[in-house]
Design a protein that fits this description.
six-stranded mixed beta sheet, 24 helices, 17 strands, single chain, alpha/beta, globular
């Protein structure tokens, strides 16, 4: 459904009620299901978008605020329009979106799905000129659309060459049962953050009863500050697809899907070309490498802007043409996943590691890392450092070592694993990356002493409130209340009551939310309250209680509309 809706939106610039009914008839689905999908995904719109649809990333690393400049507002001023709206002539829409995975390239935006990085005021003015002249994107400067990998440090996965088919041939020579044993013995754990044993997951799925088995690659990395999958898909896609094919051989799957985040749609043509080439080499399709019982192929499905779809059961729901709402568990996907059948869902990096293990052995993999965290971890390093980019380290590396390598000095804090991970201060920089100490999905955000950490927390809180799927009350309501409390404190109107309320809210959201989004949404706030209490104390008002809602400020829009600013138009003055 997502593919059909995206195609129609590109053609019609929005999804009208008439279009919803047409899709419903075409796919033989209820109108309510199509309607709910359109409303759920941020890249689908019921109201008309512009011929040029520009979305500025609002991430703390690749966001539109640079050196005191607000680049989004600058472009709006040049084009005589308001952010969040489509201009009256229908030419352009400008809005914000969550992190687009370009954190190593400075301020960035998407224009009709194509990324432009390294934004500054000069480039913004040039964008405005090209839009006003209605210049086709194909005639915009080609260098604007180049996205470099920025691999700064390679390890066991990024340094070693991988020839397409090598891992499959090694598995055929060894036998698929023995290959599963190699994956288990390697100690490979999921690289998406949860850290479940990859080999055990494959074994459980293999043993599960079903009419079909499926392999899903979760390429929906939406965690702000994470961009390692972007690089792996761009330059190491053969290893990704090889890992998926090995998994299929082990569990007996004939169909696989790579769920690509909507922000990475620009990678789709290249990925499709690699799949075609693999079919030509006999590495996909029927009778892979001449093996009569080895049939497997991969299809790419592109998301439409929903962070929650990075949760494996929400991803499956989206793949089935539904809203990306996480399922109740158990049952787990390994027994009842896609279409109710046994399904393996693994991260991009996990499949790359599996392909290398098949080729080079479990002992080779275990030679790197620690006893409880075998192998390496690929990090997306961004923020206040001189050399942002991709760094691969054996597990057990210290935070201090990463900071030294990326050129980060005078650091106030590091956010490990993105906003849902752990916020640590300088006293903890000797801690180690690993499942036994600091686990991470890959995001490594660096914040210097000059950064306003409270503003960072506000950004994170707005992100979670926006990305909550709305299914459960603790997350739907709790993330919004937490956002409001942070806004109030950052605005200088908070009191100790609000600090205490944030602690209470954070604990409730963490313990009672339905899925991982809510369970981790308050992590950065709770960590900051623990490690940096002074940041809140210095912003507090001195009175015991201050209401969250400023009634007089709420009248400002009415004053602007009525062109009034007299005493009677101000609540406090009128009451006096």
């Amino acid at each position: 459904m997502l593919d059909v809706l995206y195609t129609l939106q590109q053609k019609l610039l929005h999804i009208s009620d008439q279009t919803v009914r047409a899709v419903s008839e075409h796919l033989d689905l209820p109108v309510s299901q199509v309607e709910s999908v359109v409303e759920f995904y941020s890249f689908l719109s019921k109201s008309p978008r512009g011929k040029y649809n520009i979305l500025f990333s609002n991430c703390t690393s690749c966001g539109f605020r640079r050196g005191g400049e607000n680049l989004l507002h600058l472009l709006c001023d040049h084009l005589h329009m308001v952010a969040g709206e489509t201009r009256t002539d229908g030419l352009i829409s400008i809005d914000e979106t969550s992190c687009i995975g370009m954190c190593d390239h400075g301020a960035a935006l998407l224009v009709n799905g194509m990324p432009i990085t390294g934004l500054d005021s000069r480039k913004i003015m040039r964008v405005a000129e090209l839009v006003e002249m209605e210049t086709a994107l194909s005639n915009w400067p080609a260098e604007w659309f180049r996205v470099e990998d920025n691999i700064r440090r390679g390890g066991v996965l990024l340094k070693n060459d991988f020839v397409a088919g090598a891992g499959i041939r090694a598995a055929l020579a060894r036998g698929f049962d023995a290959t599963l044993s190699e994956i288990i013995q390697s100690g490979l754990r999921g690289r998406g953050g949860a850290g479940f044993s990859t080999g055990i997951k494959w074994k459980l799925c293999r043993e599960a009863q079903g009419t079909a088995h499926y392999v899903l690659c979760n390429a929906d990395e939406g965690e702000p500050g994470t961009f390692k999958d972007r690089v792996l898909l761009h330059s190491y896609a053969d290893a990704v697809f090889e890992g998926m094919t090995l998994c299929a051989a082990v569990i007996g799957a004939k169909q696989g899907f790579l769920y690509l985040r909507g922000e990475y749609r620009y990678l789709l043509p290249q990925l499709q070309a690699i799949l075609t080439h693999r079919r030509q080499l006999g590495l996909l399709g029927n009778h892979i490498l001449g093996q009569r019982r080895f049939d497997f192929d991969i299809e790419i499905v592109v998301g439409a802007g929903a962070y929650i779809c990075g949760e494996e059961s929400a991803l499956i729901e989206s793949l089935e043409g539904k809203r990306g709402v996480p399922r109740n568990r158990p049952p787990f996907p390994v027994t009842q996943g896609y279409l109710g059948q046994p399904t393996v869902v693994n991260n991009v990096e996990t499949f790359v590691a599996a392909a290398h293990i098949s080729l080079r052995s479990s002992a080779w993999f275990r030679a790197a890392g620690t006893e409880k965290s075998a192998g390496s971890k690929i990090l997306s390093v961004s923020g206040d450092c001189s050399v942002p980019g991709i760094y691969e380290y054996p597990f057990g590396v210290s935070i201090r070592q990463v900071l030294d390598d990326c050129g980060a000095g005078n650091i106030q804090a590091v956010q490990i694993g993105g906003p849902s991970g752990a916020l640590i201060g300088s006293a903890e920089f000797e801690r180690k990356l690993g499942f036994e100490d600091l686990p991470t999905g890959g995001s490594f955000m660096v914040f210097g002493q000059e950064r306003d950490l409270l503003a960072i927390l506000v950004n994170f809180a707005h992100f979670f409130a926006h990305e909550s799927c709305g299914f459960c009350t603790p997350c739907r309501v709790g993330t919004t209340l937490l956002k409001n409390e942070l806004d109030k404190i950052a605005g200088g109107r908070g009191t100790q009551y609000d600090v205490d309320e944030m602690k209470r809210l954070g604990t409730l959201i963490k313990h009672y939310s339905h899925c991982g989004l809510g369970q981790t949404a308050a992590n950065s706030v709770l960590d900051c309250l623990h490690h940096f209490p002074h940041l809140f104390e210095q912003r507090l008002a001195h009175n015991d209680y201050e209401p969250c809602f400023d009634l007089d400020a709420a009248l400002e829009e009415a004053r602007l509309l009525t062109h009034r600013n007299d005493a009677a138009a101000h609540l406090g003055i009128a009451r006096g």
